[in-house]
Specification:
Length: about 600
């Protein structure tokens, strides 16, 4: 099994660890210390050696930040985790604060006084974060103090070693463009912008630029590393040379210099000219080293990587067909097995992983499967473990959000299904239908160039708003090509300011969550299509083409709430699902799919 189900949170140790940290704070003469979930690479997944927040608090989610003061401590979480955290956090030692309602700087302003010093590790906070926080605290004469050594590292006596796994080339047949062409393209952009070099701090950007992949963290196939691209298209890659095979060295070529990570600081200090640093993704530590040489700007790799080329789009389609067939096998098994009351949330995860493994192409999951039945489905980013594991029961809504990593693409799909044998909870059918209406509204949207995610977010929410409902997460995130399942800069959300561009892959996943009862989410991946004229319209319009192929549970739809166009969309989508996948399925699953995809 790729996914494990141990609950390795240790909230009972939080009080003693906080006490030890406060002793270190006293020795350092500081009044507070900030502990983010991120490591120095600031990604969603961190290696075991970087899980400082989890070591201290027991919280193991993908986003969060703790602030430890002398007499109180707070754990800031977003809406995905506030409900779940109550079950795994020592709430007597740590106050859970919803970060969407209370900002970090406002909380600090209320809990610190003039003259206080709040410390941080500059390797773990971006330039933008420190600039914003410092500006807010300066007004109250509260000092933000960088530390050379992280206070937790001296306390974490059994800290794991950094990863040192295999690194392999990502063939051009999957990448669709050679590494040298990518480097030339980005270097030309640096020259145009009168920059001499680009500091690449996101490992996925180095992986994309160099056409390499690794296994340093779970679920995202990259090697944790930094790089510098110069305007002459040469690269300095800071990675342990022992990790590179002769084949990989040959793939990289003479224009890629391999430099041990311990020599990075010296290299950066000797760099001349302007060095572009992305303030949103670059740790403050690097700006401290580069000083006046650092010029803030966006890493151009992000946008280039986000706009998939035709080879990557074809790969994504192939990956989703393969993945869709595996998901249908799972959904069929679930439909005939779960009503008997013999299937647990872990059983479901295990069988779904088995279905994907049987494709022979699965490299990893793209994230740990969210497998939530009944009340657990209302926990947005619920991760089942041996303690929380629940048996699926007749009448439950079961929410399964899962995905796979394949050489040709990354998948992410959510389906909410009814476990047969009893009626669903009150309001579940209305909620499901409104979520479906929002999903269809976004899937069928047409929009001009320079339209950003904010402009589209309300389309998916409007049917929910009309019923007095909403959800506390984004409507859609970007997805990589055998890379991060959550990829920027594009997103469809209230904070999605990046214009959508052809080739971008985004999720479409409105939802609704009734605490203690059920959760609903319907998620497909889709890519942005090129602009084209609509009839005699004045402007060309872009749109979306669906990638994900799996039936949507018709048992949970109130057909009377759907307008004609929505019914037609669902019928057409289901026809596409059946026509594409049926030949890949065994007879019994094919018959089940035919019934599941029959027109409304």
């Amino acid at each position: 099994m790729l996914q494990k189900f141990d609950n390795n949170a240790q909230p009972d140790q939080a009080a003693s660890k906080l006490a030890l940290l406060r002793l270190e704070m006293d020795n350092a003469d500081i009044d507070g210390f900030i502990v983010p979930r991120e490591d120095e690479f600031m990604g969603e997944y961190v290696p075991a050696c970087g899980e400082r927040l989890k070591w201290l608090t027991g919280f193991g989610g993908s986003a969060g930040i703790a602030i430890i003061l002398k007499s109180k401590a707070a754990l800031f979480l977003d809406g995905r985790y506030t409900l779940e955290a109550e079950n795994y956090i020592d709430t007597e030692s740590l106050t859970i604060v919803p970060i969407m309602q209370v900002s970090i700087h406002s909380w600090l302003s209320e809990n610190l006084v003039s003259g206080d010093k709040i410390a941080y590790d500059p390797k773990l906070h971006s330039i933008a974060q420190i600039k914003k926080l410092s500006a807010a605290l300066d007004k109250q004469d509260i000092t933000l103090t960088p530390l050379d050594d992280n206070l937790i590292d001296s306390l974490w006596t059994d800290r794991p070693d950094p990863p040192n796994g295999d690194i392999h080339l990502h063939n051009d047949a999957y990448a669709g463009q050679s590494s040298s062409d990518k480097r030339d393209n980005i270097a030309a952009q640096l020259t145009t912008e009168q920059a001499d070099a680009l500091l690449i701090t996101q490992p996925e950007n180095s992986a994309w630029l160099l056409n390499i992949r690794g296994n340093d963290v779970p679920r995202t196939p990259f090697a944790l590393s930094f790089a510098v691209l110069k305007k002459d298209a040469s690269v300095a890659w800071f990675i342990n040379p022992d990790r590179l095979s002769s084949d990989l060295q040959a793939h990289l070529g003479s224009d890629v210099e391999i430099i041990p990570p311990q020599d990075m600081k010296t290299y950066l200090e000797k760099l001349t000219g302007n060095v572009v640093v992305d303030p949103s993704h670059t740790p403050q530590y690097f700006k401290n080293i580069l000083q006046d040489k650092a010029v803030e700007g966006k890493d151009p790799c992000n946008l280039k990587k986000a706009c998939k080329n035709p080879i990557e789009i074809e790969g994504a389609k192939a990956a989703h067909i393969r993945d869709g067939a595996a998901l249908c096998k799972f959904l069929h098994w679930l439909d005939i097995t779960a009503p008997a009351g013999s299937v647990s949330e872990i059983d479901a995860v295990s069988y779904l992983e088995q279905c994907r493994q049987e494709t022979g192409e699965l490299k990893d999951l793209s994230f740990d499967t969210i497998s939530g039945s009944g009340p657990n489905g209302a926990i947005v980013h619920y991760r089942v473990n041996n303690e929380s594991n629940r048996t699926l029961q007749a009448g439950d809504l079961y929410l399964v959000d899962s995905g796979g990593q394949y050489l040709d693409g990354t998948t992410d799909v959510t389906r909410t299904v009814l476990i047969d044998g009893a009626p669903p909870p009150d309001m579940a059918i209305e909620a499901f239908t409104r979520v479906l209406k929002g999903h269809i509204a976004l899937a069928t949207a047409r929009f001009p160039e320079n339209t950003d995610g904010v402009a589209l977010d309300a389309l998916a929410r409007a049917p929910l708003w009309a019923g007095g409902l909403d959800f506390d997460h984004g409507t859609g995130h970007g997805v990589g090509s055998y890379l991060s399942v959550h990829e920027g800069p594009q997103r469809i959300s209230k904070g999605g300011t990046q214009a959508l561009m052809p080739g971008m892959i985004v999720s479409n996943e409105p939802g609704f969550y009734q605490k203690g009862e059920f959760g609903v989410r319907i998620e497909n991946l889709q890519f942005v299509t090129s602009p084209e004229k609509i009839n005699d319209g004045q402007r060309q319009m872009m749109g979306f083409e669906v990638l994900t192929l799996a039936p949507i549970d018709k048992r949970l739809i109130n057909v009377d709430l759907l307008v004609t166009q929505e019914r037609e969309w669902l019928n057409n989508y289901h026809k596409q699902v059946f026509d594409t996948l049926s030949s890949l399925l065994e007879a019994d699953t094919k018959a089940w799919l035919q019934h599941s995809c029959a027109p409304l």
